[in-house]
Structures are given as C-alpha cells and as structure tokens.
Amino acid sequence: xxxxxxxxxxxxxxxxxxxxxxxxxxxxxxxxxxxxxxxxxxxxxxxxxxxxxxxxxxxxxxxxxxxxxxxxxxxxxxxxxxxxxxxxxxxxxxxxxxxxxxxxxxxxxxxxxxxxxxxxxxxxxxxxxxxxxxxxxxxxxxxxxxxxxxxxxxxxxxxxxxxxxxxxxxxxxxxxxxxxxxxxxxxxxxxxxxxxxxxxxxxxxxxxxxxxxxxxxxxxxxxxxxxxxxxxxxxxxxxxxxxxxxxxxxxxxxxxxxxxxxxxxxxxxxxxxxxxxxxxxxxxxxxxxxxxxxx
Length: 295
Fold this sequence. Notes:
There is one protein chain. By secondary structure, the protein is of the alpha/beta class. It contains ten helices and 13 strands. The strands form three sheets. It has a five-stranded mixed beta sheet, sandwiched between helices. A five-stranded mixed beta sheet has the order 7-6-8-5-9, sandwiched between helices. The protein has a three-stranded antiparallel beta sheet with strand order 11-12-13, with helices on one face.
C-alpha cells in the first residue's frame, strides 16, 4: 500500500477540490492511501486588504511550496489561477486535470437588472475592469474572504451583488446561488480559471508517475496558452489580466485582455491557430498574444 501526503489550504473550497481530486486519483490506483496536510497560507491570514496590495496571487501557494520542498507533503492541489508565472525552483506543475466551468457568475442579481450606482463586490482587478466596461455606473466594492464569507456579506446587504467563479460554486454544491452566468464575451475568465494545478517535486519520479493518470491533455494545452499570455504581460494581481483558450475542432481560439493597474486603457486581442501539439507551442502562442497586448 502506498500513502501520499496531499498539501492543501483548509478553506471549504480548497478542501472540496482537493478531496474531489483525491477521489479521482484513487480511482486510478487501487490501494492508494491519501493523507491531508492542511496549510495556512499568507493569503488566508490577511483578509482585510486586496491581494494587489499585499503581494499578489503567490501568497496562496508560498507556504504550500515550502511544505513540498521540505518533505511535509508529496503533492499539492491548487486552483491554477492562484499559481504565479514563476513557481519555486525544484517544483513542477505535474498534472492539470479536466477543467470545471471557467465562467464567472453574478450572485444576487443580473448585470442588466442592477440599478444605477449599485454596489458589486469583488476583489479582482480583472472583474472590476470588465464590469466597468459593461456598466460604468456600478460601484465596485473590494470584497475578500472565502465563498461563504462573500455570500454572507451579500445576504447581509453589504453589497447588491457579487461576482464569483462558477467553478467554486459548483465544487461547493452552491451552483443554485448563481443568478447569471456571464458569457466570456462580457467577462473574460482569469488565466486558468476553473482548472486545478497539481504540484510536486520535480525530481520525484514515483509521485509524478502516480499523478500522471489524471492529466487532461486538452485542459493542459489551454492553460499553457493562457499562462503564456499572463507571463508575457508580467501578469500578477497588481494588473488586470484575462485569458481564455477554447478548442474548436482542430483549432485553438485564444482571447486575452490586459489593462493598466487602475483599469484604464484595456486592450483586447485574440489568436486563432491550429491546435498546439505541445505545452511549449501553446505557451508560445499565448506569449505572442501577450506581447501584442502589452505593446
């Protein structure tokens, strides 16, 4: 019998997606035992300020990467949108499982039904930028915290609506809370939204071999292209960046958005190309789009 230690944050959503992945992995390997290692990250501890003000998305994985490197965990389950362009030396994103729904949703109202001056809660610069493009009259209110916390603030009347990732609601069995599912043409998803990234030590061949059974090639190719956009524009939580890749027949349709830190001067672009055959080819396709957006 083999036992692996799974590193995860301990929020409801992090545990839900880690346990769902653990069940998928166990289906491929009879007798595999998985032990959860709960880790509190800097992003979990600091809840009173926007991510853009405290260092960005890497705050949700730094302590987990430390646990991987010092041997307290064998692999970790991340939301890939929380993973920065550069990860710690010695580690690798070994697997990208099949993606959940990547779209954003509005909870509490529809965009069209919100009155002028309504307060919409989100901590995302990307969402704020795209919301203002559609409804410049809305007041965007910074809103941190886990999904339950954000829903409670909505229910308590602190805001008129909130924007969340549909994938998170679905993984928490809260999909019915979505009032409107937003088309990517209106709200282009975050890089890797809806996808998980399974991280482990680069030289741990035994663990990588076990994880490999859960890799979803098309999702991995799409995420590679999207992360190419992010890397080329220097993307972080300090800049509004969006990228979304889809497979249409034998082609990739990749869309991207990049704006200044204050949400102004938003640039949009897209690429249609034959479906990439490797991660590197997909990443370069995304990088080319990112360089175009940046320039």
